[in-house]
Batch of 4 targets.
Target 1
Amino acid sequence: MNKRRHIPLSTPNPDPEACSLAMRIAVCQKVPLFADLDAQQLAQVNRHCHARNVGAGASIYLEGDAATHLYVVAIGAVKTTRLAADGRESLIDLLTPGDFFGALPVLGQKHYVDSATALTPACLLGLDAPEYDAILQEIPQVAVATLKGVAHRLTQSQHAIHMLAGAPLEQRLAALLLVLADKAGKPWNGATLLDVPLTREDLAAMAGAATESVSRLLSQWQREGWIDAGRRWVAIVDAARLEQVRDGMV
């Protein structure tokens, strides 16, 4: 029981000193929009970015607000959500260092289509419209990379919609856990810990299912030894078994 009560998650350091120049440039290099840039160009991009530190649970922007910034996660984790027609919150994505989110009118969005909230203390690198414009003027190849990056995000969204539309919950939840492990997993006690504080409600929102159904399935998988879990944390013990579930082989 003690193990289940313990939350084995690392706590990001939101101190501005932690978001150092070297870290900022390294994070920018992970972003699809800037991945092909050389060291000098990355330094140019960094000069246009403004660091913003936010606490866990803090709102970054709200669905329907005027789109004013693109953000890159440098430290911590952020979730994006949308309100469903029935008023329930649907979790759209989990963002970790190197992921970008937000919107700008130049990218075809005058308003944010989702809300963004810090899951942990976080350091974000922000670009407003004039700063992003300046980058495009200085480094034209970023424009092509932007189109590819936006297209990739659209493809990911279409894949998620396909999964939600047709796959059984077992497959959707297994696929979700494996994706999260790839994005935010770290070794822990012989398993892969999802190193972000996700509630059962969060996982249910991402899987498109009722919280009770997701809780029952997670409890079943824990009894079978495929995962370990506690309050706001999940660790994957048997990834091969979850891959079989995801692929409809179990």
Target 2
Amino acid sequence: MYFLLSPAKSLNEKDNVPINVADQYSQPALIEAACELMKTLKQKDPIDLMQLMKISDKIAQLNSERNQAWCWSKTVPFTIDTAKPAVYLFDGDVYTGLDVYDMKKQTVEYLNTHVGILSGLYGLLKPLDLILPYRLEMGTKLANNKGDNLYNFWDKQIAELINKRIPTTDNVLINLASNEYFKSVDKKTLNAKVITPRFEDEKNGKFKVISFYAKKARGLMVKYAADNQLTSAEQLKDFNLAGYYYCPELSDDKTWTFRRDENITA
């Protein structure tokens, strides 16, 4: 069983990694491709980035500075002195649910072998891959030597890497990524059964997907699996954090639905 998550726009650059997992820090597997993309990004000034990514002047300026600070001879390979493990750098709703800063070492080690984080810049990351702060969403229409966007650029590379990392014991991929990011995984290349959990919350007597809660629930599900050291997808049907429960009557072999009552909003 292997989980896929999206990254986050917001980053936690200030908090130190709370446990010693230095022996498992690694370089992104697709770092050469990331360097290729960065060469293109370094040519963009703040105004270009504003238009390309539809971001504010302040955010564009920050990321222009980040891009220009990326120096091949000095920053690659990354070190813990200048970079940070991906799972500790990404912030936002999914990572709030994951709550990695309060995890024990054994739990983080489970994440590192069972979770992949999709990335516009890095392709696919292990949670403990060292990375630098960046901004490049997968849906960005960044022209490159392989096409007009990042989907063209990554092509089969991400799916091929997933195939190498997914446990052969069950070959099940739990897709907890957004549509924008999961689209980067070439389905024809992928050798796995894909299950996509769907999280619904009750509001005004009706159940529906509420983005904020659904994102947090994705992180909670991975946390549940890591805390309990789960080994099979079937065990996820017992997921019950924050009041969620599995609904077999609303599920099929590709989509598993979990619901939560209106009076529970944790």
Target 3
Amino acid sequence: MTRPLRLVAVSGGLQRPSKSAALAEHLLDLIADELPCEQHLIELGQLAPQLAGVVWRSQLPCTVERELAAVEQADVLVVVTPVFRGSYTGLFKHFFDFIHQDALIDMPVLLAATGGSERHALVIDHQLRPLFSFFQARTLPLGVYRTDKDFGDYRPQNEALIERARLAVQRALPLLELAYRVKRSLAEEVVLA
């Protein structure tokens, strides 16, 4: 029996509720509608007190270590961050500083961000893509950026946002389906061996 894809989302939002977490959940659901997967959402705002002042991974509490392991063992990663001063949050970067540099090689990563205005829309290409290129991840071709006005009661409300998210997932599906077929093939080889 083939296990579903491990789909992990990381939300860099610092508050709860969070527009970044809402967008991450929306993207997780869109992917889950297309492929069998196990979903896991990591909200960095909830981990912030446990990350404060930590310099080495060996100093992290077990709860944070489990979340890092979830990212490193994912089949597909969705990352969403609010934009602060033209970039991802410091907490977002601090979390990914603990990820092993080879853990995300060839992993499909869907990039998304939320911000106060359209002027930060290039954060995906100018900040997030280079970060995940360092990890040699496969950043998916279409990112999703949304502003505060695209949300109502912390839910995606703007039809353009909903359509952009849908399109990002549709364009990613060939790569995600390939990842799923590879996982299924590897599982069958293990069973036959």
Target 4
Amino acid sequence: APPSFADELAPVRTTPPGRARAELAEAGSGPLPAALDRDDLAERAADAVEWVWTHTVMPDWPRRRRILEADVVARSAQLGRGGWAEAVNGMRPGVRWLGGSRLQINTHDNPPRELGGAQLLFVPVTPYQSWVCWDIPRRYGLVYPCSGALSEAGSDPVPAALGALIGPARAAVLLLLASPLSTTQLVALTGQGLGSVGRHLRVLLDAGLVRRRRAGRSVLYFRTDAGDVLVRGAG
């Protein structure tokens, strides 16, 4: 089970004052304003993060979490199909797998950094923004925007040929599974009942056109290569 939000916030609250000031100055690319040059900066920062979580993120967290889980499953599938190059290329502007265990994270002319022995985290977020972060020398993070957000799903009409072959309702489900989705999401996006979506998924699974994978508390479905070929062939 993942840690609670309070558990994750606890290290922020206990950051020593000097380190808190130095890290905030680094993040802001300049000296701290006088109002932030204080010994309770870490505690106040944690309070601010907690307020943002409680009032702006938590009410919408179940939807955001499903999008994040879908992106992780999609990236994992890309990694399995084409290795690191397919999984990370285009993750954010400037990111490119160079081969030989080398990863370019931006287009700045900075010297390379050796990360052997450290953690490298890929962190999806729902806003269309990206950045890098670090806790030298233990951990480095590449924050990138999710692909295939649910708001973009369902905008393409079902090809007539595909609908004639497998039925328009089942074709609509298959079309949406270009990005991993849960049964609940498919119900919301198609307007079909839960039982109907479940039957369509069973048929598509038996036919080898989709696969499923557990991600956290959700089971996500996504098209196989055979499913992709069928959709492309139908136009």
